[in-house]
Structures are given as structure tokens and as C-alpha cells.
Structures
1.
Amino acid sequence: MARSTFGASLADYVVQPSDGLWAVAAGAVITFWDDSDGGTQYTDLLDASSAPVTQVTADEFGAIPEFSGPDGVTGMWADAGGASRAWIEARSVTSGATITPSVRDWLNVKDFGAQGDGAADDTAAIQAALAACPMGGIVYLPAGAYRTSAPLTIPPAVTLMGTHTNLMTVVGLVDPPCYIAPLASFVGDSVIKFLDQAEGGYSTISAEHRILNVMIDGSAVATPGIDGILAKGNIQNVALRDVTIRKVTGAGINTQFNAGFFPYSWRCHRVMVDNCGWHGIHMQVMTDITLIDCQAIGNGANGFEINNAANSQAIGCRAEWNAANGFHITGDWATGTGSGGMLLGDCSTDRNGFNGVLIDAVGNGPIQIENLHTRRDGRNGGAGGGNYAGLACNAATVPVVVGLVTCYPGVDDNGTQTNSPMFGARFTGCTYVSVSSGFLHAATDGWSDGGGNTVLRRGPNIGERTGPTNAPVDVFNEGWEAAGYAILGSGQSNGQWSVWSGQAKALNLGAVGGGIAIAEGLNGRQGVAALVGGTVTVPNTSVTATTRVDHFRQEPGGTLGHLSVTKDPGVGFTITSDEAETSVIAWVLFEAA
């Protein structure tokens, strides 16, 4: 027989009896029994140092410390002096020299031989734990630095979980390591990968993979093109939470096509991708994704490369200091009923090499942007210029609908670099772009119409500034005035406007030289007609029984008489003089409101 290991696992954290489970106070003394009530106490126990004990004491969190049970016992009833006992199962079951996982479905990689010492190759041990883990189970990485030499494959419905995530390396911070660090000799396409059903040989669809509280540190690897996390094919409902990927030579996260399928419906919360060699997060035809509080910083290409992510959303995400664009929304988003757009909400950019956000996607699904904050993008290698902008749309056929966007220019923190970006927002060759409001301060122009746009609509509340931040030049002629009147730029409307104010001056044309222009032509609402022998009939199908026909002489001719009008609703009207004059008569049609 052999002793099994109990305690020292997150599985031993339990809650109050009101929830149907069991908890103990910090420092509680716990004894172990063979029955839920009465029975015989187990007293043949060993503590973590193999010293004999008859009971254990809970730590400051109420958790059970590691200890070994009696020979051959894999489960016991724990008694902390309360009204009831709780069933405690072994964290690992030892049989001779073989370690097998307990029925808790919580597998500690160290039970499979992982060292986590920053030197030993732990690939085989971690992969063995992942392979042994049943669906729905957790493979646990205690604090440590786990070196790997080949990709780790997480099976469907298995969670890889560490103690915590080091979001970034902070000078002076003593933070216990908890990360996977590929060796310099690493061989493979990614540090962690998900396989679809065909490649993985799974009996079920590849789905419900989880990575929680794990950091990938690729700083020791020089081979190009190694991704942090790679998924190809039909891999659904993956969840990443509190995950950091830094200094891999490929993409931080890379999803790709395989055998006619793409990954689908991922959820990423608090994911940091830091200084990777290619795109930070690369999503290819990934529908229904959710990115919340994700950051891409210092990556070698785009921070977020989103190539068709129909029906998806990025909320509170940030792209900073990436070599190319912060966010790049691109690719063919299709035009059918199964296609769709994307929402960017409360996102921000700073000091990206090209545009803060670039949209050049094609398709019919709308891209919606709400509360976009851009700053110091368009670095262009430190030279500025380059026609880069905080928000840029270039040859996009997808409708782009922007609620609020701001841009603030600047230079690097140390004062170097030319002031950038060149434009706050720039639109060129797009099918439909509408921007409701914003404040756009940029080196050259806040708002830039690059030409070739089919419809470009600018809202009334967009303020502009140009120049450096310490000496800006205000261009507020398109903004809201302090008195509360809106000055609208030139534009078009294809619908009825109504002014229901009871004031005598409900509609004012206040500028000197301002006026009203009404189109002429067949069935127009104004025009001219020449009298012949004192009469002229004007065909106009827009005339109704209540239409008011205002008429006056534009060019007098002959003997002038008194003018009158006769209407023929739906056909036109006739202007008649009581003299045989030949004047040119101007007319305007009005309707009663």
C-alpha cells in the first residue's frame, strides 16, 4: 500500500454551509475520520516534512496544508469541531512509483514531474498532465518558471490554470514567477496550440478550451515566426482570462483557416500581448468574438489585426506603440445574411507607427465605433507625416458609423519625434462614413476628406485644432456655438424637415448673402414661363387643390395687365393677363403646413 497526498490545493477552498459546502476558520484544528458521524479517527498521518501527526491546522486562509493520509486511504471525513464533517479526497493517489490524478479533476503538473525551476525542460510533464485531464478538469501550474522545448497542446474542455499573471515586467517589483518560458532550443510553430477535431484525433468537436492566469515569456527564443497561442480550424468557445504573452517571435495570438473552417466564438478578458514579433492579436474570419480589456503593446506589426470578425465586439481595448496600425479592421466581411459588422467601444490608441485605427474592410456589415480615444499615432519611424491619422478609413465599402472620436497629437515621452499624427480623422474612397461628434487635434488637419467618398457625413459637434499641443490653432467654425446654435457644414438630406416652433422667425438665414435655392425643371417647385397673347399654361403634376401659386413679372413685355391663376390639380396651372402682354412670369409653388 502507499500514502496519498491531501491538501495544498485550490480544490480545498470551500464555502459556507448555506451554499451546501463546508468551510473552516483560519487556524482551525482538523481531524479526519472514516465516517460522516462517529466512526474511527485516522491518526496515522504525515505532515509535509514526513513527520507523524494526528491532525492538521488550517492556514490563515482556512485552507488545508499538504499532508499524507494513511496507507491506501484516498478519501476521509474532515472534522473542524463544527456541526458537520466534510468529505475530503486525495489531491493525488500514489500507487508504488506511479502517480495518478485524484477524482477531483484538479491535476498539479508537479505530480507529473514538472519542476518549474526555470531550468528543467517541463514539456513532457505538462503535456502528460494535459493528456490525463478529463474534460471539464483543470491542469494547475503552481508558481514557477516552466521551460518548454515544443508546443503544448490543450485538449477540448480542459483548463490550464496558473496562480497569477505577470502583466508586464516592472522594474523593482518582486513578483513570484508563474509562466511558461520556451527554451532557446524550442522547436515548433507556437508555445501553446489548439487542434481541431481532425488534427487532434478527438472524439468530440474541439471546443471549450481555457487558459487562466498564465503568462508566456518567449524572450529566450530567437527563431522567427513562433506564435504564443495558435489555433487552426473549427475550434470553438475558447476562453482566455488574465493571460499575458510577451516577446514571442510570431503573433501573440494567431487564429487561422484549416480544412474549410476557422476558429469561432472566443472570449478574451484581460489579455496582454507585449512586444511580439508580428501582430499582437491576429483573428482571421473569427465570428462572434468578444475582446474585453485586452492590450497590444510594442508588437512588430499591427496591435489588433481583425480580418472579418462578424458580430463581434472589442470593449475597453488598447493598442500602444505597435510598429504598424493599432487596430486594423480588414478583409472581406461579406454581404449575405450570415455576415455582420463589429463594435469597437471605449477603445484607445497611443504612439502606433501608422494609424491608430485603420478600416479598409469590404462588405455590407456596419463597423460601429463608440468613444474612441486616439493619441500620438502616426509616428512613422519618428518622422510623422505619411498621411496617417488617429482614425483612418481607406477604400472601405463596409458602412462605418462613428459616435464619438477624439485625437490628441504629440511626441515621444522624451520630447523626440515630429508631432503626429498628421490628421485626427481621414477618409478616402469609402462607401459610407458617418461621424457624429468628436474633438480632433492633429499636426496638419483635424478632419481630412481625402476624396473619392460616396457618402461622408460630418456631425455638427466636431471641434478641430492643428499644430503642437502647447500652441494649438483652433478651427472651431464647424462646432457648437456658445449661444446654442449649430453651424452645419454643407451636406444633403433626403427626407422631410419640420420646424414646429411657434416663433415668428422659426427659420432664419442669418448670414449676409444667404438665401434659398429651389430646383427648377419638369414638375419643379419654381420656374419661369412667357405669356403669349396674355396667357401661358404650365404643366406640373405636383400641383394640388391647395397649392399656393405665387407669380410675378420677371421681364415685362407689351401692355401690362392684371395677372390671375387657374389650377388644374395633378396637371398644372394657367397664368392669364387681362391684356395681350408678352411678359416673362416667374412662379413659385407653396403648400400649407
Note: The chain has two helices and 51 strands.
2.
Amino acid sequence: MEKNYEIRNLGCAHCGGKIEEAIKKLDGVEDAVLNFPMRKMKIKGELTDELLAEINRIAGKIEAGVSIVPLNAGSHHHEHEHHSHGEDCCCGHEHHHEHEHHSHGEDCCCGHEHHHEHEHERRSETAAHEPQHAHESGIKKELIPLILGIVIFAAALAVHHTLHILPLSLGLFGAAYLLLGYNVIIATFKNIRVGNFFDENFLMTVATVGAFILGEYSEAVGVVLFFKIGELFEDYAVARSRKAITDVAALRVDEAEVFRNGGFVRVDSDEIEVGDILRIKAGERIAADGVVESGESRIDTSAVNGEPVPVTVRTGDKVMSGCINLSETFTLKATAAASESMISKIAQAVEDASAEKPKIDRFITRFSKIYTPIVIAVAVLTAVVGSIVTGDVGKWIYSALTFLVISCPCALVLSVPLAYFSGIGAASKLGILFKGGDSIEALGKIKSVIFDKTGTLTNGSFTVTEITSCGRLSENELLRICGSCEQVSSHPVAESIAAKCGEQKIILSSPEKSGELAGRGVYAEIGGNTVLCGNEKLMKEKNVVIPDMPETAFGSVVYVAVNGRAEGRIIVSDSVKKTSKNAVAELKGMGIHTAMLTGDKPENAAVIGRELGVDFAKGGLMPDEKLSELNKIREQKGSVMFVGDGINDAPVLAGADIGGAMQSGADLALEAADAVFMSSEPAAIVSAKKIADKTMRISYQNIIFALAIKAAVLVLGLIGHPNMWLAVFADSGVAMLLILNSVRALNVKGLRAASKK
């Protein structure tokens, strides 16, 4: 079985990686995937109570105080899974059993205020946000000793450099050190007790105590000060990135009004079934996917697909869960249970994606395993060899201590995945769902984007694009008589002509006689006139002479003849999406080769290709032929992304270096894709590419900057110029800069503006 677990009290990304690796090696465990920013782990295997106890033993040994419990265990709203907290519980967490399984009715006497009528948030959302609020509260509490420690440290420096009273300055330095470093010291002793040496706390304690012994008081306090500031920055950055993910989960709804036994009653959204009728009031968020049963309203879809303009929905229109009803009450027929609805799938996809590691992240993890022991070995050799050769024991021990300060690779281990985590969160704000960090990495490396046509670059729905009269009838009369004739047909072309008449409020006539001619068109008797509407084949069959007319544009041509005389033509086309042309232009401006491969007629592909400006367009292709063409482009240009929406696109989506699917497409295409675009607009592809490029830039910047600074300080130490302040900057200072740099990936303001074009 596969199960999600919460990791409590985990503060070190490097230690989290060690825990993940150790759990993977256990008998009975098939796989373990750590999601450090979310403090979660997915474990697959024979998950017994004994195995969970062993997992906790190992986790606690790697980082003292860490516990791994089934997700939501100990929450106010959830039962404990496999983990019972009794009176003798020693897990170190506070438990509130008295309210855990309590039902709050009207006569509830527990002293809490309840708002059942407007409680739309899921219990899973509450569980997600409670740790978030606790985390923010913890950060605020840490600020008090930090500020007090800084004040005492400043006083110590003043006394040390002006009054030169050693006992007083030493006492102030010691007080500042204890205030700022008590967490590090406590963690060190806990780790020593379980036999865990050489973690960041142990190394920091050894380095700072050594500095105190050598009389470098200000350096010792400075190290713990910057270390504490770095930890707070890390907590803030992780919390902010986590919020981008939990905000998506917050879109899920706790309760909804469902029609039961002759009336609407409020029920838990988990009870919604396919076919249920839901009443959606103004201001409420939609609990499940469905079709409008009755009523008309405007809904805000921005939380789901990033589209800022509200959408009007009427009877028969599809709506997605997570959207907000802005105006009138309407009823909805559920087409999926809440747990299977779009917003639940989005929330799960985003969280799962945040745990998937890109190749660069896996490289950093492997690198850190080699890096830390090497630096510690160099530190020991520096102290021993340098002292023997020069006889200056103090100097070379001090140099070794600077090595220890910078030896922890936590900045690298956290900053790279944090950049990808932030990128995934930023994309979700725009309705772009990456299925993992490796999807972002693959998108960042593409050289070519290949589009399907119908439903991807075009809307996939027919509209009248041209009306040409060549006889006695005006264009409006031509449209009216054709619309009157086409009423009898359910063909998409006929329906689009009838819809055009409705848009222009043209009153149609009722044919006295009518019928369809398969594969050719329709005929009708209207007001004593015989009307033919159809293709060129029908006209030839009925001996209707078609006069010369301007060359037809892209689309299906419907000729209209009255009493055997051609009166004109109506062209019905699949309209191009509003952002298609700009999206193609922007991609080309980024140096990306663009192509369009479609199963539509070659002449239609050529017209659309010219209109949009793609570098290459080819039509009349079967799915296997599309894949063959994609491979040719990959050989010529490099890695490719394919974007489609149909069932027939699934093989090509799977065969591309990265597949992108429009949310409006088939389920099989969504399953095969590495990225899903909820807005179904090509502009989202440009935004996704920009997010991927920015995320990769940030990750590479972090790696290069961190290694360069650490290498420079190491070299200075080796040549006999140790400086603990530089070492502090190389560790905590660099960590702060890298973390802040990683959080930049969350910014989507510029992309939001671009997506509206």
C-alpha cells in the first residue's frame, strides 16, 4: 500500500534527504518520496505498526525530535491512523482528545463558536492550514530571542572595544551566544545522545565553542546570529512557497446544498454523488464538477484557470469545481463526486508535483553525500598538518573551524528544490499544472514546440467566417434562407449557420418540406422555392452552375442555390483562439522553433499555419505519422514539446520530451501529458516556458554562487588566511541569499499581464 505521512519537527533539508534514503533501504519499503517544503513523505510498502516504529527510530536518530505519523494524525478533525496517543504518549506533541470525535450541534456546550451555514472549507484544508499558522506563530516567537540577542551582542561589542572590561564583555558575549544559539546547542546534545554526529548543529557548536576557547568571541556569536537569521529566512521562504500549494487545496469545498427528499439540504461534500442536484448561491464556491441544470449566472474561474474575466453560464453549460458564483443562484447537476472533481485533481496534482525531483536536484543530493565528508576531512588535516608544520596550533585550529562552519551543504540541498517548488506554485496560480520538477526541467531545455491544431490553436467549434453573394440575394437574405434550410440538420456546420442567424436576430422560415442528402448537404421547400445548401458535389449533381468567385478561405464551403440558380456561398471555419498568434510570435522571439501537425486537411493546415506564422505546418496526419514527424523535428532541432488535446494525441504527447495538454481535451491526453493548461489558451504555454526558464536560471545561479563562495573561503583557509566572518557568510549568508533567490520564482505578476493579451 501507499500512504502519506506528516514529518514533524524536521528542520534540515539535508537531514530530510538522509531520512528518505534510510527509509528506502528498510525491508518492507518499496519507495519513499520526501516533500520537504510540505513536510510530508509518501511511503509505499507493507506499512505495519512495527515498520512505522522503525521508521520513527531511524528518523529520530538522523535528526533528534523528528517523528513521522500518518497524515492528519493528531488533527482536531481527523481520527488517528495507526497511531494511538494515550496518557503515556511520549511523542512530545499536545493532544486534544476531548474534541476529536465530538459532533457540534445546536446545543453544543464545548465553548467554541461554530458557523456551519457558511463553512465551505474542507477538513483537509483546515489540516493543511493549522500547521501553516503554527509555523508562522513559531517564527514570530523566534524573533524575541533574536532581537534580544542582537541587542546584547551589540552591547558586548561596545564594551569589548571601548571599555576593555574582559569579564563584562565575556559575560555579555556568553549571554548573547546562549540566547541566539540555545536551539543549536540543545539539538547537538540530543543528536549526540542518539549517536548522530556531524550534522549542521554539531558542526556549528564545535566551531563556535572552539572560537570561544581561542578568544574569538565576536566571531562565535556572529556565527550563531547569522545561522539563526538564516533559519528564519528559510522558514519564511518555505512557508511562503508552501502557501502557494496549500492555497490550491483551500479551493476545495467542505459542504454544499444538495437536493434530497424533496428539498435542498446542506451535506458534507464527500457525500455528493454523480447525478446529484446542487444549489449554488451567490458568493459560494462550487463543490463539484457539473452541468448547469437551471438558471443563469456569472462565475469567477480565475482560481482554477488563471482567467481574470468572469464567465457567463447558462443551462447546459459545463462548470468546474473551485469556481465562485458571482451573481444569481443556479442549480447544477454533478457529473463527478467532489473527490473526483477538477479542483481535487488539481490540488492533488500540484502537491504530488512538489515532491517529484528534477535531475539537477538528484545531482545535488548525490553531491552533498561526497562533499560534507571531504570538507570535514580537509578541516581535520588542516588543523593537524598545519599545526605540525608551522607550530602555530591556534591559527590552524581556527582555520579548521572556519572549514566546519561552511561544510554544511543545507543551502544547496534546500535552495534548488525550493526553486522548483516555487515554480510549481507560481504555475498553479496561472492554471498551469506541472506533474513534477522534472517536467519544468524538461520544458526549460526544449528547442521546439509542436502544436496540434483543432482544440489547441483553434477553438474546435465552427463559426461563420464569410458570406459571399453572387446572385440577387443580399448577404443577410442569403444567410436567412440558408439558415431556414439548415434547421433540419444536426451537422456542426448546419448548427453554426443557425447560430449565426440567432446572433444577428434573423427570423427563420419554416420549410414546407425538407431533408438531408448524406455527405452532400440539405434541401428544402420554402415559400414555394426549392433551396439547396451543400458542397460542390451537390451542386454538380443538381446541375447548378457555380460562377467564378474569389478563392475560398480556410474552412468548409456551403453553396446556396434557389430554384436551380446559384445565389452565393457561406464559409464555416474553426476559429483561431485569441492568444494563438501572439503565443507563436513570443515563442519564436524566445528562439523556439514552432510547428503544427494536424489530422485536418493539408490545405486547412497551410492556411492556419500562414495566419499564425508557425515555422512548419503539415496536415492530413494520422497519430503514428504525427509521431514520425515529431521525431524528424527532434533530430533537426533538439528536444521538443508537443501540445494537444485529443485522444489521438496521446501517443505523441507520450513520445515528446515533454507533453502539454489543454484541460478541455480528452482524459487520455491529460493523463499522458507532463503539463496541463487549465485555461486551454496557447498563451499559457508561453507562461509555462517562462516559468521553467526562470526556475532553471535560479537553480543554476544558486549552485554556481554557493560553490564559488564556499570554494573561495576554503582556498583562503588553506593558504593561511582564515576568517570566520567570511565562513559565516559562506554558510548562513549564502543560504539566505539562495533562499530569497529561490522564492523569486513565485512572482507571476508580469506573466499575469502577458496572459491577458
Note: The chain is about 50% helix and 20% strand.
